[in-house]
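Course exercise 7: structure representation. Students receive a sequence record and must write out the corresponding structure in token form. The form below is the worked example handed out in class, using Beta-2-glycoprotein 1 (351 residues). Read each field label carefully; the graders check that inputs and outputs are placed in the correct fields and that the protein name is recorded exactly as given.

STUDENT ID: A-19
EXERCISE PROTEIN: Beta-2-glycoprotein 1
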Amino acid sequence: MWNILNKYFLFAVVYRVCFFEPVQAACGTPPLIVNAHVVGVKVIYEPGEEAVYSCNVGYMGIGRNRIVCPKNARWNKPGIKCEPKPCPIPQVLENGMMHSTEFKFGKTVYYSCNEGYILRGKNSSYCQSDTMWSDLQRSCEPVRCSPPTLPMYGSIKFSNPHGATDIPVFGESVTYSCNQGLALIGNETSFCLASGKWSQAPVCKEVKCPSPQKIVNGFLVFALKRNYNYLESVQYGCVQNYVLDGSRDVTCQKSGNWTHVPVCRAACILSVNRARIFYKGKKLWIKNLPSKRVQHREMVAFYCEDKKHNCGYPVLTQCIDGKIEAPSCFQEPSAAAYMFNWKLPSEITQC
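STUDENT ANSWER:
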């Protein structure tokens, strides 16, 4: 009996090998691709059968989108890669900023306004699958300020004139002025701030300055001894042979003090008796200079001799409040040399 079974099994094997086709291997489900899917995906693919990939919504394919089930039933690596579709760079938000570095499907950009501006609309947009941005309607509007307070005894001028219904906005300014005779204490300009409030407004006050002081060797020109109002002015002058050092006019300031009071400076008397000088653009014999006097801050040139090169040259000196000195190189000539102009540094060839 055992021999019969063995013979039957051997016959079955030989019959199967000789008369039936061998069973071929098949491929399973194609490999997964990020952001893609297989069109009409199946569980089993026969050798030679294709699998076709398609990118998901919002993505675009790069590379071949088909793979074929090989005879060894092992899928090759797909050649397609799905990348997010790009969206155009969003329009610049006037008076605002955009915060993002990527402009492609699925990404979000955020918006904010500059100081002094308020965002109207959503603060973000995202890149959609159709490569268009969502929620594009937005703007940055300036902060509004309520009308500024009118100062007592003063007036306001707007930098940007408004109509009856217009409201001042961030960055605009007003200029204050006071009625005549009153001083404006503080900044004359006020600005609409990012907080919606105005910067500190000035006040208009009555200011008096005391009677102006007297100055040495000087006098006040037709000035009464009284208190003076803000911006009133008086004039100073000097007695003979003195000149003013400073402005002739002084004005009452908002601090209640006068502007800088001038000083009377003395003229200078040249101490030499024999010389030729250069003064006010002219060569003069010193005897022809009235009283040998020059005024404060005026310049005089004396002539010195360069003995090595046998030539003359001028050296400047200046009168300062009654004091002047001849240059150290100057030598006053003798009476005879001066009388006959003999080799005077001012008369010989100049260096």
